[in-house]
Amino acid sequence: MKRKSAYRVRVKVGDAEIHVEGAEAGVVKIVEALSDVFRGSRRIAAQAESASSTSVISPTPRTSPIDIRSFFNEKQPSSDVEAAAVAAYYYQYLAPDQQRRDSIDSTALQEAFRHAKRPLPAKTIYTLQNARGAGYLDSTGETGRFRLNPVGYNLVEHSLGPSQPADAKKKPSHKSPRK
Q1: Percentage of the chain with pLDDT > 70?
Q2: What are 125-160's pLDDT values in tens digits?
Q3: Residue 107 pLDDT greater than 90, yes or no
Q4: Hey, what CATH topology would domain 64-166 get?
Q5: Between these two residues, 55 and 71, which has the higher pLDDT value?
Q6: Which among 3, 18, 37, 109 has most CB atoms closer than 10 A?
Q7: CA 66, CA 71: separation in Å to the nearest integer?
Q8: Rounded CA gap, 102 and 28, in Å?
Q9: Numbered ranges of CATH 1.10.10 in the chain
């Protein structure tokens, strides 16, 4: 029986560094929980500064639903592969309850691109396979279905969007200078 490889994620915030290794589902849950904690602690600190007389402060998650077009505009994916990760993230975490899904297929990706007013790729299945090849999605075991993995989650949550400096999106060149 072929054994699946363990997922490894390293999260670094300031001087603190956390290493997580294990099964995909467990690693994803831990990364999501850490993300919620860090987002919540920033909100709590901001609320504490603005309301110093308040005795109990609780973080407030995003309660208003966001439409997919706004989310694509916020994240500004630079390629169809990044857009596939953005779509998978949206459907898994932000879509209205009746539209949420754990995995994405060609039809869902086409729907996401149409709603986001993004040009459709010639073959959406190839876009999903390329996103898997880039490390953002994993196959679910069902033909043509893919699931966002921790790398894709981190891409959408932490790397895409206007808040990131332009240099952070560029990949370093590994070519040596010509002589």
Answers
A1: 64
A2: 999 999 999 999 999 999 999 999 999 999 999 998
A3: yes
A4: Arc Repressor Mutant, subunit A (1.10.10)
A5: 71
A6: 109
A7: 7
A8: 12
A9: 64-166
Q: Give the count of beta carbons closer than 10 Å to the beta carbon of residue 66.
A: 13
Give the pair of three-digit tokens for residue 67.
């439409």
CB 20 within 8 A of CB 11: yes
Question: Left, alpha or beta for 14 (phi > 0: left; psi -120 to 50: alpha)?
Answer: left
The CA-atom distances, in angstroms, between 84 and each of 22, 25, 93, 104 are: 25, 20, 14, 9
Amino acid at 83: A
Of residues 142 and 38, more confidence is placed in 142
Tokens linked to 160 = 């895409």
